[in-house]
Design goal:
There is one protein chain. The chain is α/β, with parallel strands linked by helices. The protein folds into 2 domains: 176 residues, Rossmann fold (3-Layer(aba) Sandwich), CATH 3.40.50.1000; 69 residues, Trehalose-6-phosphate phosphatase related protein, domain 2 (Alpha-Beta Plaits). It has 7 helices and 13 strands. It has a 9-stranded mixed β-sheet with strand order 1-6-5-4-3-2-11-12-13, sandwiched between helices. A 4-stranded antiparallel β-sheet has the order 7-8-10-9, with helices on one face. α3 packs antiparallel against α4 and α5 runs parallel beside α6. The termini are far apart.
């Protein structure tokens, strides 16, 4: 179940947008603002990025949000003292204007699934369980040979937990998330709020977990940007790495200008 406060404006977020519209910027975190790390707690955010995002948010009239699989509390800690609109846990929780506006309830079977995953991790070196309370992720980046076994376990748990849970697969990770939570739904919801409505949505991500966000933005006539060229994607633009994105954001914060064209690299 999701407790949702409806946006104040039911903006027509699915209209095709003219290219000269001011943008609304949505950014993934892992693999996008930071490089992928061996474990979830090893990520490092360039100290210049949070102040740059704060400056860009002002330039964009507040229309900047993080859309991540991470919990809001984690992102707040990394970005402190700066605070942003955030859709965390793949959209299972959404904060706008410093107020939690959408929050999924934990699935009744989540604690049992967590126990099974912890037992699996305790029996296999390199497996990491990330308990996010509303969701739980299993990482095997440090144990790639265990991918098939890890995926089989996660798929079995998702089946056991039923239609209230969706299995979200990514790069060396799989996560049990509330069925109604997705980055695409979160972006569409944010685009219906007054701060974001009427703007051209731009979403930057890097993983399978971002594909529904790309599709949602494409349906709105926006710009979808994938970091990396390692697989096929619904994204309409590509950037080579988080380093390239970081350069774009830092330069835009300094120059005072960020547009859809900023993300279209030759």
């Amino acid at each position: 179940m999701t407790t949702l406060i409806e946006p104040d404006s039911a903006a027509s977020s699915h209209e095709i947008a003219p290219a000269d519209r001011e943008i609304a910027l949505f950014l993934d975190f892992d693999g996008t603002l930071v490089e992928i790390a061996p474990s979830p707690n090893d990520v490092h955010l360039d100290r210049r990025v949070a102040p740059a995002l704060s400056a860009l948010r002002t330039q964009l009239g507040g229309a900047l949000a993080l859309v991540s699989g991470r919990p809001i509390a984690f992102l707040d800690g990394v970005l402190a003292p700066h605070r942003f609109d955030i859709a965390g846990l793949h959209g299972a929780q959404i904060r706008v204007d410093d107020e939690i506006r959408s929050q999924a309830d934990p699935h009744e079977g989540m604690r049992g699934a967590l126990r099974d995953l912890v037992r699996f991790a305790n029996s296999h070196v390199g497996i990491i369980v990330e308990d996010k309370r509303i969701s739980v992720a299993l990482h095997w980046r440090l144990a790639p040979a265990l991918e098939d076994e890890a995926l089989a376990l996660m798929r079995g748990l998702a089946k056991r937990m039923g239609p209230g849970i969706r299995l979200q697969e990514g790069k060396s990770v799989a996560e049990l998330v509330p069925a109604g939570a997705s980055k695409g739904n979160a972006i569409a919801w944010l685009m219906a709020t007054p701060t974001y409505a009427g703007r051209l949505p731009v979403f930057v991500g890097d993983d399978i977990t971002d594909e529904d966000g790309f599709e949602a933005v494409n349906a709105m006539g926006g710009i979808s940007v994938r970091i990396g060229a390692d697989r096929e994607s619904h994204a309409t633009c590509r950037l080579a790495s988080p380093t390239v994105l970081r350069h774009i954001l830092l330069e835009a914060a300094e120059s005072g200008h960020l547009s859809a064209a900023s993300f279209k690299q030759d």
